[in-house]
Amino acid sequence: PATGFGYVKLGDKLDVPNAPSARLVSAFKEKPDAYTAAKYLSSGNYRWNAGMFVTKASTLMDLVKEYEPELHKDLTRIAEAWEDKTQRETILNEVWPTLEKVAIDNAIAEPAAAEGRVAVIPATFGWDDVGDFSSLAEMLPAEANSPRILGDRNLVVAQQAPGGIV
Prior knowledge:
Protein name: Nucleotidyl transferase domain-containing protein
Strand content: 5-15%
Shape: flat
GO molecular function: mannose-1-phosphate guanylyltransferase (GTP) activity
InterPro entries: Mannose-6P_isomerase_type2 (IPR051161), NTP_transferase_dom (IPR005835), Nucleotide-diphossugar_trans (IPR029044)
Number of helices: 6
Organism: Photinus pyralis (Common eastern firefly)
Pfam families: NTP_transferase (PF00483)
Radius of gyration: 21 Å
């Protein structure tokens, strides 16, 4: 069980051609403690939330309009100014710093799931939530007693840096 990931609680099965494992999402659960994570997994009704959302932009904007109307208004102002570079810069400088900083999970996915409007297709594939340096370090190749290097190893000189990330 992982405590660094959020979980998706599986809801009713959906009859979707070419996606037989598709289910409604009945709830999103934030990073649980180890005991709760173990219970989630043993129940068979939960999967890790990889945070990968697939939707049409128009559908997403409709949901933003419904659940976060102020955010939708401001994003629409930016979109309307986008083609005119001068206007774009002016609007971006005015609006962007004032946008509410809210995760899509909390603002859109959770309320939409509560209304039966979010589906999940459980899948098994390599994935990690690279949210901290230890997760990143696990994904980068390393030699014994050397740092993990992202990029050209020939450009890095490292001494006594095992476990480091460059």
